[in-house]
Specification:
It is a single chain. The protein is 7% helix and 30% strand. The protein is mainly beta. The strands form three sheets. It has a five-stranded antiparallel beta sheet, with no helix packed on it. Strands 6-7-8 form a three-stranded antiparallel beta sheet, with no helix packed on it. The protein has a two-stranded antiparallel ribbon with strand order 1-2.
């Protein structure tokens, strides 16, 4: 089971009331005609299938702290404001060959590293504002398991309870101004 500081998303287990379980990234992601995506507490992975003749030179990708654009053969895949801030230095993209088919099946794999952890209904409901959204409300209240000997996490919990202006346990608040 994941303790505070680990990246596995957890939720209440509907099959075993009173218990929780780790979530698979594909449970909190989406799919459009142009791309699919998944997420964990700290990262988003996006896959964009492209034509077999695609090269890196055909791809225009820009990842900024709050903006993302992706064009392939000058066709817009996504372009706009990210739902929240990402670490632009740690976020990346690459063109990968999937499988051993001929002609090769290519896809652009993009990894966004979130600036703030997300859990429960605080997960991103889309990557770029204006793109199709997913329902994250079903995931429920954010859950953080704290080991009784994790003094740093216990201190953060106490501070979060005392100072209601800061995000709970350092997590993203979807109702707050993004990036604050």
């Amino acid at each position: 089971m994941a303790w505070a500081g680990m990246s596995s998303a957890i939720t209440f287990d509907r099959m075993r009331p009173g218990h929780h379980r780790e979530m698979r990234p594909e449970e909190i992601g989406g799919k459009t005609k142009k791309y699919s995506w998944t997420q964990t507490n700290w990262e988003i992975r996006c896959k964009v299938p492209v034509d077999p003749e695609t090269t890196r030179a055909d791809i225009k990708c820009s990842i900024k702290r709050r903006k993302f654009s992706l064009y392939v053969f000058e066709e817009k895949i996504m372009d706009g404001e990210l739902l929240d801030n990402v670490d632009q230095e740690a976020s990346s993209w690459q063109l990968d060959q999937e499988g051993t088919d001929f002609p090769p099946r290519l896809e652009i794999n993009i990894t966004f590293i979130k600036e703030m952890e997300t859990q429960g209904r605080n997960h991103w409901n889309c990557i770029v504002v204006g793109e199709p959204t997913i329902n994250v409300e079903w995931v429920g209240t954010p859950i953080t398991l704290i080991h009784p000997q994790d003094t740093a996490a216990l201190k953060l919990l106490k501070e979060s309870q005392e100072d209601t202006t800061r995000p709970f346990m350092g997590m993203r608040d979807p109702k707050a101004i993004p990036g604050k």
